[in-house]
Amino acid sequence: MAETDVSSTEKRRVSQTAVESGLAGEDDAAMLAKLGYKQELRRNFTMLEVFGIAFSIMGLLPSIASTLAYSIPAGPAGLVWGWFLASMFIFFVGLAMADLGSAMPTSGGLYWWTHFFASPKSRNALSFLVGYSNTLGLVGGLCSIDYGFSLMFLSVIVIAKDGEWAPSSGVVYAVFLACVLCHGILASSVSKSMGKLQTVFVAMNFILIFATIIALPIGRAGQRNDAKYIFATTGNLTTWPTGWAFMISWLSPIWTIGAFDSCVHMSEEAANATKAVPYGILMSIGSCWLFGWILCIVIAACMSQDLESLLGSSFGQPMAQIYYDALGKRGAIGMMTLLFIVQFLMGLSITVAASRQTWAFSRDGALPFSRYIRIINQKLGFIPFNAVWFCVILAALLGLLTLIGPAAASAVFSLAVAGNDVAWGVPILARVVWGQKKFVPGPFYTGRLSIPIAWIAIIFLCFGIVLSMFPTTGPNPTSESMNYTVVINMGVWGGALAYYYLDARKWFTGPKITLSADELTEEQERALAEEGLVIDVAGQSDMFGGDHCGPEVTAEGVKILKVIDKHTDLTFKFDEQLLGGASIDAHGIPLTDTALNAAKSADAILLGAIGGPKWGTAAVRPEQGILALRKELGTYGNLRPCFFASESLVDSSPLKAEVCRGVDFMIVRELTGGIYFGDRIEDDQGKGFAEDREPYHAFEIERVTRLAAQLALARSPPSKVWSLDKANVLATSRLWRKTFTRVMETEFPQLEFGHHLIDSAAMLMVKNPRALNGVIVTSNLFGDIISDEASVIPGSLGLLPSASLSSGIGGEGKCNGIYEPIHGSAPDISGHNAVNPVATILSVSMMLRYSFQQPELAAKVDEAVKNVIDQGVRTKDIGGTAGTKEVGDAVAEELAKLLTK
C-alpha cells in the first residue's frame, strides 16, 4: 500500500497517540494505521539496526559452526558450493519478501499478508496456520541457537580439560536453560538501547569473521588444502546418493540465513519501515551469502581431510576441532569463546524478534492468553514484556526435547527450518495465486521480475521443507539417527489446523483493527458507514464510483449540480475516482492515495453508498475507505436533520400525523471521541468479561458545541440548542454537560439551550418529537442511536441527508464537508432503478448551504424536491411508482424552472 500523509488537525488520532508521544513519525504511523493497527511500540530502530538484528540472529560464523555436521559429509565442494547455491535461492526468497515488507510493513506481516491476499474461503485458516508456524518456528530457532550456544560453551571446557570430560544431556540442558532465561531478562530490560546494541552485535560478528579468515590460514600455514580440494572434491559420508548428500549440505545456509523475517517482525519499531524492512532483509541475506561463502572456503582450506574424525571430534563441535588443529589449545579456547559470545548475542536478538511476532499474533487474538500476552509495558520502553516471557517459557519447555537425545535435538533445529519455510512461502504463494491484483507496491519493488522471483522463491521453499524432513545420514535411519522433524512439524501444522477448525474458526476472523482513535470494529464501521464515496463536487470537484446503488443515486445528485452550473454563476468540475468495494476490486485497497489527494483538493465531497455482502468481513473492507477519508479530512461533527421534505409525507410516518407534523430538528453527533474510540478488553478467552471505555476531552465537546450553536444561529429564527447526555450516571456525561453549558453561556449567550437525559429524549422523540425542534448535540454513542431512531420518523431512509463537517460554519471561507444520504448500498434493489434519490439530492442541498455558503440555492433545491413529491413523482418506498432516474429528472426539471423565474 502506498504511503499517506497524516493530517496535522487530527489531534486525537495517529498524530497524537504516536507522533506527539514520540512513538513514531507521521508517515510510519499513518502507514500502520492503513493496515488497521495503532502505533504501540516505539520506533527506535534505524535501517542499519533493522539489518543488524537480522544479521546478528544469523550469527554467521557461530551458525556455520553449529551446522558443519550437515555440510562436511558432502565434502569440501559440498560445503563451499552448497553454501553458494542455497544462498542464491534464499536471496530470491528475500526479494519476494522485500516486495511485501515494503508494501505492508507490520510485525505480524507473514500471517497478515496471507489473510490479505488469500481467497475468502481459505484466508482465515491459512492466516492461522502461518501465524502458528511462524511463531513456533521462531521459538524453535531460539531453542536451536541457545542449544548451539550450550554446546559451544561446554566445548571450551572440554578443550580446556583435553577431552577428558564430557557433559551429560542434563548439564547441556541446564546451560541451555540459563541462557534462555538470561535472554528473557536482557530482552525485557535493555529494550530502550536494543536498537543501538545491534550495531555492537554486527561489529562483534565481523570481528569474529575477520579473525577467523585471518587466523585459520596463518595457523595452518604449510598444511592448507589446495584449490582443487576446496572447490572440486566431493565426498559422501552418508548412505544417500552423492547428489542428495550435496543437497543435505544446503541445510547449513538454509538454517543460518533463516532470520531475515526478523526485519518484518521489527517493522513497527523501525523508522521509515517501508524502506528499512526490505533493505534490512536484502542486506542481511547478501552479507551472509558473501561472507559465508568466504568463510566456507577458508574452512575448507584449513580443515583436516579426515572428515570422519572431524565429525567425531571429542570436543563435540567440528569447528572447535578445526580451531584446535590450526591454533592449538589456547587459540581454540579463545576463538570458541568469541564464538559462543556471538552465539549468545544471536539468541538475544531472536528472542526480541520472536516476541514481536508473538505479540502481533496475540494482538489479533490468535494465541491462548492473548489478552495478557499482547500487553505493552510502557515503563520499560514500550515493549511486549509478556510476549518476551511467553517465548522464553515456551522455548524452555520445547528445549526439554533435547534431553531425549541427538535426534530430538535435531528435530528442534529443523522446526525452525520447516516452520519458517511454510510461514514465508504461503503469503508469497497467496499473493501470486489470489492477490496479484490487490498488491500495491511500496518504495521497494522488483517490478516486472516480481512474479518470476516469487515463483522461484516458492519452489525453493517447498524444496527446503522436504529437505528438512529427510534423515541426514541415509535412507535407513536408526531410532537415534531418525529425523523427527516430520513428526514435530506435522504436529504443529496439524494441531494448528485442528485448533482452528474445532474452535478458532468460531472467533478468529483474521487481523483485527486496533485503532482506538481512527477506526471501529467491523460492526461499528458498518453502522457508521454503509455508504461510499461517489462524487467530490464544486470548484475543483471529483467523482467517485460507489458500490451497488451508490452510482445510481449520485448520478442524480450530479444532475442537480449540472442544472445549477447551467443556470447560475457557479461552476462545477467532476473527476471520477473510486472508493470502497469498487476500489478494492480495482486496486486492492478501499481508498487509494490518488483518490484521497483528489478529495483533499476538492471543495466538497458527495458520498453515495459503499459496502455489501460481496466483501464480507475481510481484513480490507469498503468501510475502511470512508473512515480513512473522514480521518484525513478531519471531520468531527455529523449532521443528521429530521424533517419532512413535504407535508404530504406526514401520513407516511409510523407516528401519528398529529404527533409528528412540524418536526424539524438537526442532530449533531460528535465523531472523534467516546466509547467507539476508547480502550477495550475483549472476551477472547470466554471468561465472561469484556470492557469498553468512553474517553472524552473537553476540546472535543467544545468544538462540536460551537458547531451546533452556529447551526442554531443560522436557522430562521435562531433555534434552541439541546444537549443529550446521561449526567445522572456517567462521568463523561457530567463533563459533557459542564463543558456544553460553559461554551453556550460564555460564547453564545443569545441562544437558548437546555439538557435532556438520553433515555427521556428517546421517549420524547416518539411521544412528542416537536419538543426537540432546534439543534440537538450529543456524544458519539448517543448520537449513533438517537439519529437512527429519528430517521424512522419521515417514513423512509431514502428521504434523509447527512453531512460530516471538519470546521464550523460561522467563519470566513469554505466549510469542508462530506455529504451523504443516510441509507446503505441496498444491494437487493441496486441496478433496478428503484432506489430513492431524494436523500442524495438533499445532501447536495446541505453541501450548497454549508460548504458553498449558498443558502438561497439550497432552498431552491429543497423547494424543487417538495414540489416533485407533491406532484406524486415518488419511488416505491414512499408510495409511488417512479424510478430513480424519473425522480431525479423531475427534480432537475423543477429546479431549472425555479432558477429561471
Top-tier CATH class of the largest domain: Mainly Alpha
Number of helices: 35
Number of domains: 3
Strand order, biggest sheet? 3-2-1-4-13-12-5-6-11-9-10
Uncertain residue segments: 1-17, 516-545
The beta-strand count equals 13
Structural class estimated from helices and strands: alpha/beta
Could you tell me the radius of gyration in angstroms?
A: 33 Å
Query: How much strand content do the residues show?
Result: 5-15%
| Overall pLDDT | 85
How widely separated are the two ends? 52 Å
Query: Largest sheet at a glance?
Result: 11 strands, mixed
Proportion in helices = 55-70%
- CATH topology title of the largest domain: Amino acid/polyamine transporter I
Note the overall shape.
elongated
Function: Catalyzes the oxidation of 3-carboxy-2-hydroxy-4-methylpentanoate (3-isopropylmalate) to 3-carboxy-4-methyl-2-oxopentanoate. The product decarboxylates to 4-methyl-2 oxopentanoate.
Pathway: Amino-acid biosynthesis; L-leucine biosynthesis; L-leucine from 3-methyl-2-oxobutanoate: step 3/4
Transmembrane segments: 48-72, 78-98, 136-159, 171-188, 200-219, 244-264, 276-301, 332-354, 380-401, 407-430, 451-470, 482-502
InterPro entries: AA/rel_permease1 (IPR002293), IsoCit/isopropylmalate_DH_CS (IPR019818), IsoPropMal-DH-like_dom (IPR024084), Isopropylmalate_DH (IPR004429)
